[in-house]
Amino acid sequence: MFDREKIKKGVRLIIEGIGENPEREGLVETPDRIARMYEEIFKGLEPPEEELLKCIEGETHDEMVLLRNIPFYSVCEHHFLPFFGNAHIAYIPDGRIVGLSELPRALDYLAKRPQVQERLTKQLADLIVEKIKPKGCMVVIEAEHLCMSMRGIKKPGVKTITSAVRGIFRKSQTTRQEALELINKDK
Q1: Where are the alpha helices (DSSP H) in the chain?
Q2: Could you give the residue numbers annotated as active site?
Q3: 76 labelled as ligand-binding?
Q4: Rounded-to-integer distance, Cα 157 and Cα 150, Å
Q5: Does residue 48 lie in a domain region?
Q6: Which key words are in the record (predicted)?
Q7: Residue 55 labelled as part of a binding site
Q8: What is the pLDDT of residues 123-134, one digit of tens each?
């Protein structure tokens, strides 16, 4: 799927376009390095290597499961600059559960493609609902966008917070509030 040669040619054009010499010692290998980096950080454009959010057979639970402060990074599709931060994922199983590492793995997969934070938040919540079929789920993502920190408005440290709530988290303010209190505990 990835075309390293095309990426290398494009990076070389960018180097020339900014007025640099692509044959300068420090830049000669840059197109290749960027092509290899893109192959890694955009791995979410390829089908997943293994099934996402595979449920654990024979295990059941029916109370809230919450993972907080899951670090992630992605690339903003508007400027191709990184955005990064932490995600918080809560779900209330309707019997079926997944291994705890499955949730960050799904986040990483969806984040490894040109993205916008709002879509990433929604995609993760929708994937949880589709695969686990919980009573409800909530995804909250807090991220800093370098396209806002280092260019344009130039406001480093600003966090963008997005949320997606499904099922009981949308219907019950008490359940939603419990999850938010757990997410914000000790902040």
Answers
A1: 4-17, 30-41, 102-111, 117-132, 146-149, 168-171, 173-184
A2: 76-79, 117, 145, 147
A3: yes
A4: 10
A5: no
A6: GTP-binding, Hydrolase, Metal-binding, Nucleotide-binding, One-carbon metabolism, Zinc
A7: no
A8: 999 999 999 999
